[in-house]
Amino acid sequence: MSYLNTRPLLYGIEHSPVLKRIELIRDYPARIASQLLDGSIDMGLVPVAVIPHMDESHIVTDYCIGCNGAVASVCIFSEMPLEEVDEVLLDYQSRTSVSLAKVLLKEYWNLHPKLVDTRSEYQSRIKGSTAGLLIGDRALAQRKVSPYIYDLGEAWQKLTDLPFVFACWISNKKLPDEFISAFNEANKWGIEHVEEVIKENSSGVFDLHTYYTSHISYFLNEEKQKGLNLFLEKIQSTVVVEGK
After folding, report:
1. Which of 14, 113, 219, 236 is the most buried (most CB within 10 A)?
2. Per-residue model confidence (pLDDT) at position 93
3. DSSP 8-state assignment for residue 120
4. Is the pTM above the cut of 0.85?
């Protein structure tokens, strides 16, 4: 993925011998997920909501894009309180964040606004009674624009008392153990050199040290796995109900 939150992981890969064994493709999350589904790539750092749609899936590495509370870069933005909003524009760049927003609107906020899919940029439409879900770098920038900010990572933690996993390295086939080990070490090295990542990636909209150390949580531990499993249960049960 091409967002700031992936830079520590990519930094490790780009400074590892494993880079010579792969073709590294950058794009936004939903497009990477589509490429994983159609088999045009073997592995991707993809939104976890793609997992139920895969015939075969393997979570690769001990690292992810997750949070233990407020994530800062996945939020619903509005000009008025959420309970007064008539519709929410959904971000076309991520499957997981859209699914999470639907879960939280129903189960945490107990609200049922009109949900509107988007296919192109829509920030200018976030005004009046129209709110918008934004992810990634665009969300960090929108924090300086919208007076009301509803952080999905924070809401999930309050709803479930669990952390949230937005994206993992997922493959659509079994990869060699030796490669997985080397790729995992590359991820680890990148996380351990986050200060170098900050020096190479300036941001005028959000303090990257705070972002990387207080908002994004990269290690896929047991608690994150519990949060991931619960989220997948919720979205799969929703699919079943809506399909009836």
Report:
1. 113
2. 86
3. S
4. yes
Cα(145)–Cα(141) distance, rounded to whole angstroms? 7
Q: How far is CA 236 from CA 21, 120, 229, 231, 232, in A?
A: 35, 27, 10, 9, 6
Helix (H) or strand (E) holding 117: strand 114-117
Other Cβ atoms within 10 Å of 25 Cβ, number = 12
pLDDT score at 224? 98
* CA atoms of 39 and 55, how far apart (whole Å): 11
131 three-class SS: strand
Residue 232 has pLDDT above 60, yes or no: yes
Q: What is the DSSP string of 161-200?
A: SS-EEEEEEEESSPPPHHHHHHHHHHHHHHHHTHHHHHHH
48, 64, 90, 77: which is closest to 140 by C-alpha? Answer: 77
Contact 135, 97 (CB under 8 A): yes
3-class DSSP state of 210: helix
Question: Does residue 159 come out as left (phi exceeding 0), alpha (psi in the -120 to 50 range) or beta?
Answer: alpha
d(CA 180, CA 168): 13
Q: Which two tokens stand for residue 207?
A: 């303090």
What are the backbone angles phi and psi of residue 123, rounded to the nearest 5°? -55, -35
Question: Residue for token digits 């906020």?
Answer: 109
The angle formed by the CA atoms of residues 151, 46 and 85, to the nearest 5 degrees, is 30
CA distance 240 to 127: 34
